[in-house]
């Protein structure tokens, strides 16, 4: 696994945002994501992770600093970016089948109907939903809806996939399964992923690197390379001394960040 990005897809430089003048939500956040990397972003509650995500996705204009995707300043929603949100209940259209939901963004690309169908079928197979393609989102469990949202992102083949606490609303077993799905997709396709999470174990388990943010207004506190073998296992990897040491290091950094910012709420560890 890479420790330093060779060829940045995403460059965030001294990003600063104030929703109201003089009250920054983000102080100064800088990091890069190299091609094919999965970078986890972790920090205390309310530190500005969603603001950061929206700034990168071109969904809001930040106060100062730069965000570059493949060398281009982000001023609008980039075409080659996909997002998976926590709120799966609102990310799929309830009146469309799973297949139609997955295929929808492909209609905005210059690809033939046949390729749209092929990409959709492959993506659904990859997330284990081939047999549910004609169901509606409300006929699926939360975990299955999140699989459908991941399939939609996969079929689109984005240069950068942004995942904003995607598994925060599903049960523990489903969460583990979905984490392994993301890890498998990342390994197989080399998809570049920015993964925002409150969960320290999840950040380390999935990440090639972990970027730790301070409490609000956030700054980049530290970047940690995750030198664990690429093939990871929920039980065995988390029992290794390397994983346990990383978990302690990140937890201590978060505690330091919370203490510095005076925040009371802490992420799960
Ligand atoms: N639209 C808004 N208008 C004003 N203030 C906002 C707005 N959105 C967020 N904030 C403030 O900016 C700060 C950062 O919020 P943000 O949602 O980005 O943090 P977060 O790290 O994603 O939070 P959480 O961990 O609770 O999900 C918070 O103090 C929040 O109250």
What labels describe this entry?
single chain; about 270 residues; alpha/beta; binds adenosine-5'-triphosphate; 2 domains; 10 strands; ten-stranded mixed sheet; about 25% strand; Rossmann fold
Which regions have little confidence, pLDDT < 50, spanning 5+ residues? Answer: none
Number of strands: 10
Which radius of gyration do the C-alpha atoms yield?
18 Å
**Can you name the CATH architecture of the largest domain?**
3-Layer(aba) Sandwich
Determine the CATH superfamily of the largest domain: P-loop containing nucleotide triphosphate hydrolases
| End-to-end distance | 24 Å
Oligomer: single chain
CATH third-tier fold name of the largest domain:
Rossmann fold
**What compounds sit in this structure?**
adenosine-5'-triphosphate
Tell me the number of structural domains.
2
Mean pLDDT equals 90
Shape: globular
| The first-level CATH class name of the largest domain | Alpha Beta
Tally of separate helices: 8
Keywords: ATP-binding, Nucleotide-binding, Transport
GO molecular function: ATP binding; ATP hydrolysis activity
Organism: Sinosporangium album
Domain ABC transporter: 10-240
């Amino acid at each position: 696994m890479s420790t330093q990005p060779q060829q940045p897809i995403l460059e965030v430089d001294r990003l600063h945002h104030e929703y109201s003048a003089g009250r920054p939500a983000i102080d100064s956040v800088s990091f890069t994501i190299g091609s094919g990397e999965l970078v986890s972003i972790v920090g205390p509650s309310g530190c500005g992770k969603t603001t950061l995500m929206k700034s990168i996705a071109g969904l809001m204009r930040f106060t100062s600093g730069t965000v570059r995707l493949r060398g281009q300043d982000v001023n609008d929603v980039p075409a080659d970016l996909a997002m998976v949100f926590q709120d799966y209940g609102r990310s799929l259209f309830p009146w469309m089948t799973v297949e139609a939901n997955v295929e929808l963004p492909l209609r905005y690309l210059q690809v033939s109907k046949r390729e749209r169908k092929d990409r959709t079928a492959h993506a659904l197979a990859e997330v284990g939903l081939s047999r549910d393609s004609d169901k509606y989102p409300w006929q699926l469990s939360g975990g299955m809806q999140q699989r459908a949202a991941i399939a939609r992102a996969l079929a689109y083949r984005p240069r950068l996939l942004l995942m904003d606490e995607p598994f925060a609303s599903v049960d523990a077993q489903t969460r583990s399964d979905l984490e392994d799905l993301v890890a498998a997709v990342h390994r197989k396709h080399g998809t570049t992923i920015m993964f925002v999470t409150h969960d320290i174990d999840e950040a380390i388990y999935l990440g090639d690197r972990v970027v730790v943010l301070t409490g609000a207004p956030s700054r980049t506190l530290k970047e940690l390379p995750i030198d664990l073998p690429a093939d990871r296992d929920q039980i065995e990897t988390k029992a290794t001394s390397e994983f346990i040491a990383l978990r302690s290091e990140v937890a201590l950094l978060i505690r330091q960040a919370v203490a510095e910012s005076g925040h009371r709420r802490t992420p799960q560890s």
